[in-house]
Amino acid sequence: xxxxxxxxxxxxxxxxxxxxxxxxxxxxxxxxxxxxxxxxxxxxxxxxxxxxxxxxxxxxxxxxxxxxxxxxxxxxx
Length: 77
What we know:
The chain is largely without helices or strands. It has no helices and no strands.
């Protein structure tokens, strides 16, 4: 449901009170403010991206000698 309300805000006023109609469903409510004369519609919320298991397969390569002892730590082993 979309409810559009045009409100004129006086120059010195810093507070807006909104009377929400009773037919507005409970839960998530999005309020968008736009400058006067703006014909831009409120942006829709982007769908949440769900990570896919294995989607990075083949993008990274591990060195063959990854588990080999390092020369720098020879004194400590």
